[in-house]
From TrEMBL:
Name under which the protein is recorded: Crotonase
Signal sequence coordinates: none
GO BP: fatty acid beta-oxidation
Organism the protein comes from: Bordetella genomosp. 4
InterPro entries, per database record: ClpP/crotonase-like_dom_sf, Enoyl-CoA_hydra/iso
A single GO molecular function term of this UniProt record: catalytic activity
Length: 268
């Protein structure tokens, strides 16, 4: 019988620049950037992050994924020299790799503090929830290198805040604070730096309490209808609602509501 191998096997065997921690009791996985002091994200690391998100998406122990970093800064961005050394084929995959949090069916939270530049900002934009410390500075500084964002940053940002603000950030390499990001609707929350971990823990606990199948359905529905017309979005929402109506979790939710008790969701 032919033995098959997959490149992901080697990628997962040599993780560099970050680590993964799984807490089965809390049904939580943490992807922790760990290349201090600035947590620069290398070219190979982008491939590894994608594979890790895909692996955690299939891991039954995990309900919620948290992306965070060691130290004072989330990430100052990518390895600049790596862009010149990478092949055109590899560079063409940058946006696909960094979109891994968005493709993941499970909720993904990112905890930002300090510098969140370039690819650090782009992968944060691909997450579902962004909790920003008051020390956070977001930026897409590629214009200073004679380049533009290449991992989905300008496209995602424009969807979220509009063309005027996106041009201001991208074309001027402008930095915006965590508070400004919250005011623009980019950040889910902005908290004092000392409360970033506690706010993240609180959101994880909140999300874990919901039905896994309802969470997955909501995320996919919202992602799929972002560019759809209102009528198409309402139609798709109706189909999703109809499918969930026959789920065990919906029945449990209704029975728990009428029984005035906390529901015990199973994800089916």
């Amino acid at each position: 019988m032919t033995t098959l191998r997959h490149p992901a096997q080697d990628l997962l065997a040599n993780i560099d620049g970050f680590r993964v921690e799984i807490n089965e009791e809390k049904q939580r996985a943490d992807i922790i950037l760990s290349r201090p002091p600035l947590n620069v994200i290398s070219m190979p690391q982008r491939d590894q992050l994608r594979v890790v998100f895909e692996a955690l998406d299939e891991d039954g122990r995990v309900r919620v994924i948290v992306l965070r970093a060691e130290g004072e800064h989330f990430s100052s961005g990518g390895d600049i020299k790596g862009f010149l050394e990478a092949s055109p084929e590899h560079v063409s995959k940058l946006a696909w790799n960094i979109a891994a949090p968005a493709r993941c069916s499970k909720p993904v939270i990112v905890a930002n503090r300090g510098y969140c530049f370039g690819v650090g900002f782009e992968i944060s934009l691909a997450c579902d929830f962004r909790i920003a410390s008051e020390t956070t500075l977001y930026a897409l500084p590629e214009q200073k290198l004679g380049q533009i964002p290449g991992s989905g940053g300008s496209a995602r940002l424009q969807k979220m805040v509009g063309i005027t603000r996106t041009k201001d950030v991208v074309m001027r390499s402008r930095r915006i604070s965590g508070q400004q990001a919250y005011d623009w609707g980019l950040a889910t929350e902005v908290v004092p730096d000392s409360e970033l971990e506690a706010a993240t823990d609180k959101l994880v606990a909140e999300l874990v309490a919901f039905s896994p199948i309802a969470q997955r359905t909501a995320k996919k529905l919202l992602n799929d209808t972002e560019d759809a017309s209102l009528s198409a979005s309402i139609e798709l929402e109706g189909h999703c609602y109809s499918r969930l109506r026959s789920s065990d979790d919906f029945r449990e939710g209704v029975e728990a509501f009428h029984g005035k008790r906390a529901p015990k969701f199973r994800g089916s």
